[in-house]
Amino acid sequence: MDGPSLPTRRAAFALVLVLVALSVPVAFGIGFRIGGYVLALALLVGGTARALLPDYLTLGLLVRSRQQDVATLVLLGVAVAVLARAVPG
Questions:
Q1: Which pLDDT score is estimated for 50?
Q2: Which of the residues 68, 74, 81, 85 has an alpha carbon 20 to 30 A from that of 37?
Q3: What is the Cα–Cα distance from 13 to 77, expressed in whole angstroms?
Q4: Residue 1 domain-assigned (yes or no)
């Protein structure tokens, strides 16, 4: 088998999943706003990984074209961050 192993090819996706999963206990334990920021970070990391890494290293993040995936993830990340900031303290 040539190239990196399957876990290596899914590392970016796994990192995004870990951040999404981490956002829930952070939201409940520390604060909703911080949990929202962690969720926004997960989306922005996914968008950055999809933009910078080749397709074979972003398995799980491949949905549509690279441009559409990046635009969607970055737009959602910014939107979640803005909405998290708007939550009353």
A1: 96
A2: 68
A3: 15
A4: no
Residue at 11 is within a domain: yes
pLDDT of residue 3: 75
Structure token digits, residue 8 = 């290596």
> What would the two tokens of residue 41 be?
């970070």
Mean pLDDT, 10 residues at a time, the chain of 89 residues: 79 95 96 96 97 91 94 98 91
CA gap 78, 64 in Å, rounded? 20
| Residue 33 to residues 24, 52, 59, 87, 89, Cα–Cα distance (Å) | 11, 28, 30, 6, 8
In degrees to the nearest 10, what's the CA dihedral of 18, 24, 28, 31?
Answer: 80
Residue 12 in contact with residue 57, Cβ under 8 Å? yes
Domain that holds residue 72: 6-86
Length of the chain: 89
